Amino acid sequence: MKTYVADCGDAAVRVNVSGGTAEQNWNTVRSIAARFDLGADGIVSVIPTYDALLVEFDNLLTDHDAVRGLVREATTIPRPLEGEPRTFEIPVVYGGEHGPDLGETARFLGVTEAEVVRLHSAAQLVMRCYGSPGGAPMLDGPAFGLPIPRRSSPRPHVAAGSVAVAGRQAVVSARPAPGGWAVIGRTPLILVDPASEQISAYRPGDLFVFRAIDADRWDEFDGRSLLPVGGDPHG
């Protein structure tokens, strides 16, 4: 496994991991990230992705050289990954006004809309990292067989809770924002609470399971916070 560390602006370093399989690189990134204690040594945030992480620091308290030293230490003495993966079950209204791209996605794949829903909800999808905006869970995509193209014309507004796919990835929008992914459904659950000490209950490595619900059940779930099966967000 190889790591490459580079300065990124005046208050961050970027760490790239390569040399292993995609899964190995991802797990190495997570284990390096777990070595950092936020608030200690001037570290402000650590943002892991698929094969890289960004370490942001307070440049009034530390500097690039010191943080690069912390990175070298973290890569030498990796920390075990945090806990067992939790499972999050997400009710989704597929199609219609909540999933305007379901039909186009089905036509692209050469299957029925019902088959798209079945494939999307058939497996546990692994959360790989946080995405934008607002900490959206970036997930492995369902077994569609083909990568799903992005929209030729992105939407200026995609509602929070929108369930979308593109390439071989899936996502649930945490906040409203523009977007070019294919929106196939929407959940009434609230994913993030910026006012809470713990903004979201999920973390990389967790598992997401989608369950189709009828539109007339929307109010049953509307306004509820997304919690892991079992209900403990700190598990």
Structural class: alpha+beta
Q: Compute the number of strand runs.
A: 13
What CATH calls the topology of the largest domain is: Cyclophilin
Largest sheet: number of strands, sense, barrel closure: 7 strands, mixed, barrel
Name the strands of the widest sheet in spatial order.
5-12-9-10-7-6-13
Order of helices and strands: EEHEEHEHHEEEEEEEEH
CATH superfamily of the largest domain: Cyclophilin-like
Helix content: 10-25%
- CATH arch. level architecture of the largest domain: Beta Barrel
Q: How many DSSP H or I helices?
A: 5
Q: Name the overall outline.
A: elongated
Short overview:
The protein has 235 residues and is an alpha+beta fold. The protein is 19% helix and 31% strand.
3D architecture notes:
The strands form 3 sheets. A 7-stranded mixed beta barrel has the order 5-12-9-10-7-6-13. Strands 1-2-4-3 form a 4-stranded antiparallel beta sheet. The relative contact order is 0.15. The protein has helices at 22-33, 64-76, 102-109, 113-120, 218-221; strands at 2-7, 12-18, 43-48, 52-57, 87-94, 125-131, 136-140, 155-158, 162-166, 169-172, 177-179, 182-186, 207-212. It has 2 domains: 2-76, 2-Layer Sandwich (Gyrase A, domain 2), CATH 3.30.1360; 87-221, Cyclophilin-like (Cyclophilin). Strand 9 and strand 10 (169-172) form a beta hairpin. With 235 residues, the chain is of the alpha+beta class. The mean pLDDT is 93. It contains 5 helices and 13 strands.
